[in-house]
Amino acid sequence: MSTTTLAVLVPLLPFLGAVAGLLLGRTAPGFVKPLAVLPTLAAAVLAVLVAVRQGGGRAIDASTELTPTGSVPIELSLHLDGFAVLVAALVGLVATCVQLYSTAYLREDPRYPSYAALVSLFTSAMLLVVYSGDLMVLLVGWEIMGICSYFLVGHYWETEAARSASLKAFLVTKLGDVPFLIGLFALATDAGSFEITKILGTVAAGGLHHPTLIALLLLAGVAGKSAQFPLHTWLPDAMAGPTPVSALIHAATMVAAGVYFIARLLPVFTASSAALVVMAVMAAITMVGSGLAALAQDDIKRVLAYSTVGQLGYMIGALAVGDRGAAVFHLLSHGAFKALLFLGAGVIIHAAGTNSLAAMSRMDGLARRVPDAFWTMTIALLALAAIPPFAGFFSKEAVLVAAEQAAGGHSDVAPSAAGWTVLVSGLLTALLTAAYATRLWLMTFRGRGAAAPDHGREPLAMTGVLWLLAVPSIAFGLAARPLADWFDGKELTPTVTTSVLGTGTALVGVMLTWALWQRATARAAAGIRNGAAVPASVAAAESAAETPEVAEVTHEHPAVPAAPAPDPGRALLGPLHRHAADGFHLDAVYDRLFVRPVRAGASLVRFLDREVVDTYVRGAGTAPRLLGGLVRRAQTGNVQSYLSALLAGAVVLAIATAVLANVNAGS
């Protein structure tokens, strides 16, 4: 079987599994789990086989015209280069892990059949985006992912939180998709084709007439899909969905699609220095802002959500300095350890009965209750904090090296301003990342108080997946040197300067957070001894991070002890804590700038429709009805009345005729 045929089967198998799962979910429930796992597993195996065959060599292209358009053709085409085959292998791996994990995590969920089918469709759409060589076909996968995310985030649709989160995710990403679609059409018009290879050829020949405008329009869509400032606010709220969905969205689909899109079309963006600077500023604000927000979150999943926003900022920053190899390297590394973090968080929520870090910090022995999650999440958090020799260290260093070279004026495409912006913000974010990773680990696994509930070992389908993902989280960084040949040939290995700066700032964040946690723990213990424990109602309110998922998948809900939670984030942020916990009030700003004016406009339109338009419509019917009523009264059925009226009318007409005749004669 040819490599092209195998590549076609990779997105096709999950799609067929999704269709079969939807058709057989109710009539043959015994087939639901095999239809969820086996097609996705087969697609993952085939994706790895395609990657092995492609081998980082020359790109493999195949295409056929999908439909004649009369102008710019739309083709069903594949473009298999080193970037595409490795990202597809990541998508297959993470999707398979999510499907396996979900069989245990949602084993009692009555809507599991539709959930599994949507996850398969989600996976198929992302694989279509990855392999597609035509922008219109890529757009199909891009939009299908948006629809799937709407249904999956709103899985617990009985609750207001899930309904609002799914609608917010859909609308915010669509807000970015409008300029994105305009940019795609403008790009295809200049290039005369939607095929990516032809577009890149046009860019190389200087054929783009409005490179800055096109790049900024496309960047708006990427900001929405990849949750970058200012369109990032949907992603933390999307934690209302099931945890395995969060792992899939954050690690290998949807948010990764925007980064991958820019990597595929990077020459379009490098054709405009202004677009690169805008991209660098967007990445810098996203990285630093999300790091500060993560330090103030109580929900363990919201901490990881803001972490994803920041790590995506690193990837966008690498693209802003013109190094797509570093960006995709971090995408692959991040995909492994972020999937591990979310799935590990699911195990913790499953066992602890809460997703509140404040509540977990009041539990003793949670690490002993879930040893698999403890060890694997420790590995993943070390990778997230970029501590050597874990995978995150090498991929994050690749980004910092690229930024350093651009800042020093050694980049052929990126201005030094973009390089300095990414480098400074990247180092600051390294400190913040290490700080919130340490805070999460301490508050989750080093709590003190009532004994954590003991429910025995978690299912193998959940814990086994964690150890599988722990392998690349540890060892993937060793692939930095050979991966350069799969990408553009640029070195991905760290330099001494960036290693010292990056690791040093990370260690400062770790030690500072540890010291502040020790102080907060001592103060909390002193408060308990002095009888200064907070009331139970206040403690419950402070740790009310519960989501619909908690009630669905946990064994029980332990009572939260009425005691202060030792939180080093409060000391680190100081007066910023309140604002950071609320995402710096961006939702409130958007509510006043956009939501309220739109609602006011809608209210005005509704008033005009009901009170003005409807009045005219009702009036148009009332006048004939009144006239008809008058005429109906004249229809008495009395012949004498009719004859009298006829005679009176004849007399009136005779008099009128005589008068008119006299008038005409006199004139």
TrEMBL record:
Pfam families assigned: Proton_antipo_M, Proton_antipo_N
Domain NADH:quinone oxidoreductase/Mrp antiporter transmembrane: 132-405
InterPro entries on file: NADHpl_OxRdtase_5_subgr, ND/Mrp_TM, NU5C-like, Proton_antipo_N
Ranges that cross the membrane: 6-24, 36-56, 76-100, 112-131, 137-157, 169-187, 199-224, 245-263, 275-296, 303-321, 327-352, 373-394, 417-438, 459-480, 500-517, 642-661
Membrane topology qualifier: Multi-pass membrane protein
Top-level division of the source organism's lineage: Bacteria
Gene Ontology molecular function: any one: oxidoreductase activity
Keyword Transmembrane helix: yes
Assigned EC number: 1.6.5.-
Entry keyword set: Membrane, Oxidoreductase, Transmembrane, Transmembrane helix
Domain NADH-Ubiquinone oxidoreductase (complex I) chain 5 N-terminal: 68-115
Keyword Transmembrane helix: yes
Subcellular location as annotated: Endomembrane system; Membrane
PANTHER family according to UniProt: NADH-UBIQUINONE OXIDOREDUCTASE CHAIN 5 (PTHR42829:SF2)
Designated name of the protein: NADH-quinone oxidoreductase subunit L
